[in-house]
Design goal:
Nucleotidyltransferase, domain 5; six-stranded mixed beta sheet; two-stranded antiparallel ribbon; alpha/beta
C-alpha cells in the first residue's frame, strides 16, 4: 500500500533523528516529496452528510433533491462501499455525491475539500471510479435499441405524439443529430480532432432522442473532423433500426435527421434545396424542422446540468476520460429526465407520469 504525504514526512524526520540521513539529505527529500500541488488541511473540516444538507443545497450541488440522490444510488445498484486502488474505502452514497458535485460545475478538486473533508488525490480517485463504474455497468444501454422502453408499442406512441405536434411524417419516433464537444488542444494529432466547421479541437457524438426527452442511442467519441454521415456509418445505427424500428403491426418506423444524413426507409431527412422546392416540400421541411429542434434541447440540457463537460480547458484527451465522462453525463441526464421531465417532453405533450424513475429502473429502462 502506498504511503501518504504525512507518513513519508514522518519517515524522513525519523531517519534524520536516527542519523541515517543528514539534514541536507532530509531537506532534499522533503522538497521532492512536497511537489508543486498545494496541501489542503482537509482534516480541519467536518464531513457533511447528505441527510444534513438543505434541499436547495442538494439541488444546486448535485442537480437533484436528497431523496432523488438516494433513488439514483438504489437504481445504480452500487455496493455499500467502494475501495480505491490505494486501499481507501468510501461509502458509495458519498462517492456518488462527489462525482455529481464534480460534474455539476467546473471546479478544482481543492474546492470540494471543505464539503467532503478528503484530500485532493482521494477525491480524484473517487470521481474516476464512479464514472468508470457507471459507464462499465450501464454504458451498453446507450448503444442498443433493444430496450424495454423502446418496445414497438412505445415507438408507435412516440410517432403518434410527433405527428400530433404537427410533423408531416406519421411514422417518425425520434430524431438523430451529431454534437461537437470542444476539448483542450492536444499536444499530438491536433489535425485529427480539429473541427473546421466550428474551428475548435473537439470530439463528436451522435445521439438519437425520443419525444419523451430520453436519449435512446449515443455513439462516440469520434474525431472532431468526422462528418455526421461518416459517424452514422461507423455507429451501426442503421442496423439497429432495421432490427427494432417497427410498429406492432409491422409498419416501418423511422427517425429524422438533418440534410447531412442519407435518405433511407428508417432514416428520413429534409428535401434538398438544389433545384427549388414545391410548396408541399417546403411545408414538409418546415413541419419537421419545428419538432426536430428537440434534439438540440437535449444536447443543451446535458451541458446545462453538467457544466464540467462544457469547460474545454479541463477536457484533456490522454489525461482524462473525456468520452467516457460525456457518456456518463448522458446517462445521468436520462435519470434527471425521468425525475423532473424535460423541455422536449413538455413541448411534444408526452409526459412520464407513469414512468417514475424507480419503476423505470426496475424495468431497466434507464439503469
Amino acid at each position: 500500500m502506498a504511503a501518504n504525504y504525512d507518513e513519508v514526512e514522518d519517515l524522513i524526520l525519523a531517519y534524520n533523528d536516527a542519523g541515517v540521513i543528514d539534514i541536507d539529505e532530509a531537506l532534499l527529500l522533503h522538497d521532492i516529496q512536497e511537489g508543486k500541488n498545494p496541501q489542503f488541511p482537509y482534516w480541519t473540516y467536518e464531513k457533511s452528510e447528505l441527510g444534513l444538507m438543505q434541499e436547495d443545497e442538494s439541488k444546486a450541488e448535485f442537480r437533484m433533491l436528497k431523496n432523488d440522490v438516494l433513488a439514483l444510488h438504489t437504481a445504480l445498484r452500487f455496493p455499500e462501499q467502494f475501495k480505491c486502488y490505494n486501499g481507501v474505502v468510501v461509502d458509495s452514497v458519498e462517492a456518488l455525491c462527489v462525482c455529481l458535485r464534480w460534474l455539476a460545475f467546473p471546479c478544482r478538486y481543492g474546492d470540494l475539500v471543505p464539503r467532503f473533508a478528503r484530500p485532493v488525490p482521494q477525491l480524484s480517485m473517487i470521481t474516476n471510479m464512479v464514472i468508470s463504474g457507471i459507464y462499465e455497468r450501464y454504458g451498453h444501454l446507450l448503444l442498443s435499441l433493444d430496450q424495454p422502453w423502446l418496445s414497438r408499442a412505445n415507438l408507435k406512441s412516440f410517432a403518434d405524439a410527433v405527428h400530433a405536434k404537427g410533423a408531416a411524417l406519421t411514422n417518425c419516433w425520434g430524431f438523430v443529430d451529431g454534437t461537437v464537444r470542444p476539448i483542450c488542444r492536444p499536444g499530438r494529432n491536433q489535425r485529427t480532432v480539429y473541427n473546421g466547421h466550428k474551428r475548435v479541437h473537439a470530439l463528436k457524438f451522435q445521439s438519437v432522442v425520443a419525444p419523451n426527452g430520453l436519449i435512446a442511442n449515443l455513439y462516440g467519441p469520434v474525431e472532431g473532423r468526422r462528418h455526421d454521415a461518416a459517424m452514422l456509418a461507423m455507429s451501426g445505427l442503421m442496423g439497429e433500426l432495421e432490427q427494432h424500428s417497427f410498429a406492432p403491426d409491422g409498419e416501418a418506423l423511422c427517425i429524422y435527421g438533418d440534410p447531412a444524413y442519407p435518405h433511407r426507409i428508417h432514416l428520413q431527412c429534409p428535401f434538398q434545396q438544389r433545384q427549388g422546392l414545391t410548396q408541399e416540400q417546403q411545408a414538409f421541411n418546415q413541419s419537421m424542422s419545428q419538432v426536430r429542434v428537440s434534439v438540440e434541447w437535449v444536447f443543451k440540457e446535458i451541458v446545462t446540468y453538467f457544466k464540467f463537460i462544457d469547460f474545454k480547458k479541463e477536457l484533456k484527451i490522454g489525461l482524462s476520460p473525456v468520452g467516457k465522462t460525456y457518456a456518463v453525463c448522458a446517462l445521468l441526464q436520462n435519470a434527471l429526465t425521468c425525475l423532473y421531465g424535460s423541455n422536449t417532453a413538455n413541448t411534444l405533450t408526452l409526459n412520464l407520469q407513469h414512468w417514475s424513475f424507480i419503476s423505470m429502473a426496475s424495468r431497466t429502462i434507464c439503469f
